[in-house]
Design brief:
Elements: H1 2-26, H2 33-44, E1 51-59, E2 68-72, E3 77-90
Antiparallel strand pairs: 1-3, 2-3
């Protein structure tokens, strides 16, 4: 009787660990498009003398938690943006 109880507990423990492992592995963290663009801008800014900038910048609202700092090409000034596109360089 003790062997059956021990075996049942062991099977439940293995099943619980397997379920936790599947749960942790199914949670993927993906970068948003603006985050990827920001990483690209940081990396490309090291290549030449001009500063990397964006021609189209959508300003972030005060409640936007996902805003990133980007440089706008028209005045080469840094803004908090919700989205940005059309990369270029400004001097």
């Amino acid at each position: 009787m003790k062997k059956k109880n021990f075996g049942g507990i062991a099977v439940l423990a293995i099943a619980a660990v397997a379920m936790l492992n599947v749960n942790f592995n199914s949670q993927k963290s993906e970068l948003s498009g603006i985050s990827l663009a920001n990483v690209e801008a940081l990396a490309s800014g090291e290549e030449g003398s001009g500063k990397s900038c964006y021609a189209n910048v959508t300003p972030a609202s005060d409640s936007d938690d996902w805003a990133v700092a980007v440089r706008k090409c028209s005045d080469c000034t840094t803004y908090w943006a919700a989205s940005a596109s059309s990369t270029s360089t400004c001097n």
